[in-house]
Design brief:
Length: 268
């Protein structure tokens, strides 16, 4: 596929999406949103075969600075039109959140406003020391969008979410890790190498099992115990019928090296 405002490549079963408007600090454009939709379609069509993990990052010195604020001054959309537009964003966000392969966001520089919430949809967020998360919406009299009200309290709790939204302050990588906003801090000069190494380990995982687990985890705060138990029963039945499970059990019985061993891969 041809893309305008993102770069998309697949190597070693890892798809890398790079938001690619560095001159605008990767602010969201209509073309970028369209590109993201198309990339989600491509990944879903290839997931589990030649795509087993996804890296999401930004070109230049920012991850994504959010909406294009300069263009907002000229926007003449009515309330119904604005609502319809936001619903289009939610469609993209839903697809990104529910990709049935692990997604790793690499934040280097600003992940602000909508850009912050796009990063936080990932299964794991890695950030460089200069990377920061910023719920910038209050600075221009807006409320969080792109799923912020859903994502943020689940990561940091309700009171901390209030603070981050009300203050609209920058949360740099070290603090972001301490409060559970991101998974880990990576080296400034080794960020992509570390991210790819992390993604390679996840790419060796049981993709179907991860997809099922992710689907259930994404609904776990919204369902009662009985519903989650039913989802678990169905999910486990699906996973037991996979070639990965059968081969892993065979190796265990034969006392051969495990098919998926996170600690062993860490030492490779």
């Amino acid at each position: 596929m041809e893309y305008q405002d993102i770069l998309f490549e697949v190597s070693e079963k890892i798809a890398t999406i790079t938001l690619n408007r560095p001159e605008a600090r990767n602010a969201l454009s209509a073309a970028m949103r369209h590109d993201l939709d198309r990339a989600m379609t491509e990944i879903k069509g290839r997931a589990g075969d030649d795509i087993k993990a996804v890296i999401l990052t930004g070109a230049g010195t920012a991850f994504c600075s959010g909406g294009d604020v300069k263009s907002m001054a000229n926007r003449k959309a009515s309330v119904p039109e604005g609502r319809s537009r936001m619903r289009e964003f939610h469609h993209t966000l839903f697809d990104l959140t529910n990709l049935e392969v692990p997604v790793i966001a690499l934040v280097d520089g600003a992940a602000a406003g909508a850009g912050a919430n796009i990063a936080l949809t990932a299964d794991f967020v890695l950030a460089t020391p200069r990377g920061f998360i910023m719920q910038a919406f209050a600075r221009i009299g807006l409320i969080p969008d792109w799923g912020g009200f859903y994502i943020l309290p689940r990561l940091v709790g309700l009171q901390k979410a209030r603070e981050l939204i009300y203050t609209a302050r920058r949360v740099y990588a070290k603090e972001a890790k301490e409060i559970g906003l991101i998974y880990d801090v990576v080296g400034q000069d080794t960020a992509m190498a570390e991210t790819r190494a992390f993604a390679k380990r996840l790419a060796k995982a049981p993709t179907i099992a991860f997809g099922v687990a992710k689907n259930i985890l994404n609904q776990s705060f919204n369902q009662d115990a009985r519903t989650l138990s039913e989802m678990e029963a169905m999910g486990q039945s699906i996973c037991r019928d996979t070639e990965f499970h059968r081969e892993a059990v065979r190796r265990f019985a034969a006392k051969e090296p495990a098919l998926y061993d996170w600690e062993a891969m860490e030492s490779e």
